[in-house]
Design a protein that fits this description.
The complex is a heterodimer of chains A (483) and B (97).
Chain A: E1 5-7, E2 10-23, E3 60-61, H1 62-74, E4 82-83, E5 85-89, E6 99-103, E7 112-117, E8 123-135, E9 139-141, E10 148-152, E11 159-165, H2 172-189, E12 201-210, E13 220-225, H3 228-247, E14 255-260, E15 265-268, H4 272-275, E16 281-282, E17 289-290, H5 293-301, H6 307-316, H7 321-328, H8 331-343, H9 347-364, H10 376-387, H11 393-406, H12 410-417, H13 425-438, H14 440-447, H15 453-464, H16 471-482
Parallel strand pairs in A: 13-14
Antiparallel strand pairs in A: 1-2, 2-11, 2-12, 4-17, 5-6, 5-16, 7-8, 8-11, 9-10, 12-13, 14-15
Chain B: H1 3-12, H2 21-37, E1 61-62, H3 72-76, E2 82-83, E3 86-90
Antiparallel strand pairs in B: 2-3
The chains are: A alpha+beta (483), B alpha+beta (97).
């Protein structure tokens, strides 16, 4: 297996599990009515509950519960009819309660699975251990003062879903594919915006190595892995570090390590080990959460079509697995493609134009499809103009470029620039006659058997027509005249 | 409960102990635990766990609406130190090896 690491003493296998924190895009926080929005003045989005004031009682946000159920269903997971909020106790200035309200032994979502898509076209099933709801902490700024830290509690209490995977991944590539798929699913569901740069999706990666077939080795938890790229790099580094440690006669210590994206290394966070005594206990301020069958079924009924199902449906329209995969990678992209199909039913043609022309232009400008200056209906009209012979495929590309630059409708551009394809036999016949008269020498050579000159004549006629002559008509008329 | 256990709990609770305090406290805490443990004598085999004595079985939920906030000055009012809208605390940095 190419996934193995070659050590000096033989092959090693990497075993990876992930804990992903996904922020629920609710208006208010998990247990208070303060805003969960980014970018406010420090401590402007803080209720007395978030600030840990004595006597304040948390009240659970219904939308966050619904988001957790919806995500659980999207991960094909068991929804627990009864779950319990627990206090995870630790001290840090950005945690004014002195504990985080989380879920411990009775999470809202249990076992599930996602199917990941690997670059070679194969798929693998990765187990989900659980999903639970918990509060985010505040933010400490350490660079504002030489001896002080500044604390902003705006994020304190914002709802997070922690999604824990089984240790089912065997390479950095699989871990990256898992994270990408998880991000795709929550974005389709609308239960997290998946923005890793802004921290609304964060990953902790558990990594261990073992001899193929051996029991699991001791794992290290790598934190601060804040981009898809960093996941790949951190795993590659950490697995290699563990193999070298073991082969040098040492051992892997179970610990928390920090990924340093600048140096490209993981570093031990010593001193955290002893503090890992969270003394979880059920939060006495909150009753258990019981979910009714009706509530779960109502959410199930409202689930959108998820990327795997959409991909299969697109492939059923004749698209390749690759093209279908690129289209479903972003929900907006798939929606755009389907909107084009509404106006023009040729799926393969529509996919070609979305993937090659539109995405080509958008990528060059660093834009995504939501910012497309070309409306899907206009692209459909363009494909229609091509299909009914009004314009040629070559002209269509020019028209598309104009549409992209100006946002104008294709019909208007074709009209204004006089780009309509000429299929009229009289008009094309005149052009053909002109070309043949101007190249009597070539006509003689052609008639003497130099067949490949036919392409030359076609080119000349097309040129004379300004690219507007219908190629079929040109071919037919040339054949007739040269007979 | 011995002195070492008291010291560990004190550390987790960020309580500073005077010399000898752990030894002095250990027997008190042992007695408290012993008092609470009397409950273990009750036979609860046939009793369902009770989340609330009020007959409620599930937690209350609020609608997702912003109803609080915009009170930074009030939130900071009791802070020993505050500046520019932030709480100000002695510098804390994650320990790294």
């Amino acid at each position: 297996m190419e996934n193995q690491i070659k050590g000096q003493s033989g092959p090693w296998e990497t075993v990876i599990g992930m804990e992903v924190h996904a922020q629920v895009p609710s208006a208010a926080k998990l247990f208070s009515g303060a805003s969960a929005a980014f970018g406010a003045e420090p401590n402007a989005h803080v209720s007395y509950i978030d600030a840990g004031m004595p006597g304040m009682l948390p009240v659970l946000n219904q939308a966050c519960v619904d988001a957790a159920i919806k995500t659980g269903l999207g991960l094909n997971a068991a929804i627990n009819r009864r779950s319990v909020f627990a206090r995870k106790n630790y001290f840090y200035p950005d945690l004014p309660q002195g504990y985080q309200i989380s879920q411990f032994d009775q999470p809202i979502v249990g076992k599930g699975a996602v199917t990941i898509d690997l670059p070679d076209g194969t798929t693998r099933r990765i187990g989900i251990t659980r999903l639970h709801l918990e509060q985010d902490a505040g933010k400490s700024l350490h660079d504002q003062h030489p001896t002080k830290s500044y604390v902003d509690l705006n994020r304190c209490g914002v709802a997070l879903m922690e999604i824990v995977s089984e240790p089912d991944m065997r390479s950095a590539e699989e871990a990256v594919a898992y994270l990408a798929k998880l991000r795709m699913i929550v974005r389709y569901l609308g239960t997290c915006d998946g923005n890793m740069e802004e921290g609304s999706m964060r990953a902790d990666v558990n990594i261990s190595v073992r001899r193929p077939g051996d029991p699991l080795g001791t794992r290290a938890e790598v934190k601060n892995v804040n981009s898809v790229k960093a996941v790949g790099q951190a795993i590659a580094y950490e697995a290699r570090r563990q193999v070298e440690a073991i082969e040098a006669g040492g051992q892997v210590v179970q610990e928390t390590r920090l990924w340093d994206p600048n140096k490209g290394v993981t570093r031990s966070m010593r001193g955290k080990e002893e503090a890992h005594d969270y003394r979880y206990f059920p939060d006495p301020d909150l009753l258990p959460l019981e979910l009714t069958e009706a509530r779960i079924e109502a959410i199930r009924a409202g689930l959108p079509e998820l990327p795997d199902a959409k991909k299969v449906r697109f492939m059923g329209m004749g698209l390749s697995a690759y093209d279908a995969g690129v289209l479903v990678a972003e929900a907006e992209r798939a929606a755009y493609f389907e909107a084009v199909l509404v106006g023009h039913g040729d799926a393969k043609l529509a996919a070609n134009w979305v993937l090659n022309e539109l995405l080509g232009f958008l990528n060059k400008d660093g834009k995504d499809i939501a910012q497309s200056p070309v409306e899907p209906g206009d692209l459909a009209s363009l494909l229609g103009l091509m299909a009914d012979g009004t314009i040629s495929g070559k002209i269509a590309k020019d028209v598309f470029e104009e549409m992209y630059k100006t946002g104008a409708a294709p019909g208007d551009i074709v009209e204004a620039k006089g780009l309509k394809q000429v299929a009229d036999a009289g008009a094309i016949g005149a052009l053909v006659d002109g070309v043949l008269a101007a190249h009597t020498d070539k006509v003689a050579e052609y008639k003497a058997g130099k067949d490949r000159l036919f392409g030359f004549f076609v080119g000349q006629v097309m040129k004379a027509s300004g690219g507007k002559a219908a190629p079929g008509a040109v071919n037919a008329l040339l054949r007739e005249r040269l007979r | 409960m011995d002195a070492a256990a008291v010291e560990k709990i004190a550390h987790l609770a960020r309580l500073a102990l005077e010399p000898g305090e752990a030894e002095a406290t250990a027997p008190h805490m042992t007695r408290i635990l012993g008092f609470v443990e009397q409950m273990g004598a009750a036979d609860t085999d046939e009793v369902e766990p009770l989340a609330s004595p009020h007959g409620t079985t599930t937690t209350l939920e609020r609608v997702d609406a912003v109803t609080e906030g915009g009170q930074a000055a009030a939130v900071l009012a009791n802070a020993p130190e505050a500046r520019a809208g932030f709480f100000v605390v002695p510098k804390v940095v994650e320990q790294e090896g």
